[in-house]
Input
Amino acid sequence: MDRRKKYTKMVLKEGLMELLKNKPISNITIKEICEEADINRSTFYSHYSSQYDLLNAIEEEFIEDMVSTLNHYNFSKEEEALMMTEKILEYIAKKPDVCQMLLSENSDIHFQKKGMMITQEYIFKNWLSNNQFDTETFEYINIFVVSGSIYVIKNWVENGMDKTPREMAEIINNFINKGLSNIR
Output
């Protein structure tokens, strides 16, 4: 991709992220994105079909980068969840503005669903095969764990990441693995 196209896509993404700080995606118009990015509408439409298409591109880029980061590691079963969680949090710490925008109420729920799918693929695939849960029960467990983790991560980012990625990974994994009864 040439430099002009990269620049155009970058300013459109930045423009949408700026607008999402103040209003939901459903209330953002193409005109507003173009004004924020200082790009004309025809240029916008040469790259994206709608504000949702642009948001999806931001989500996909974030997820692809995160998955690429995770693919650089070979995790043993014993340490897989903790190390994977730590690597995810390290990645998020490098891009807190994007993460905060994607997890905000102004974004859409698709990003969280994609996060659940990634977690299921990377963290739970070995765990499920070692436990005697049916698929439906596994789905409930996955939703509970990932939804809780997403909101803990969202709170961590919104509060200025006051703990290290390792500390947060330990908090999340201790709760997942030991539950409330062992947290004192």
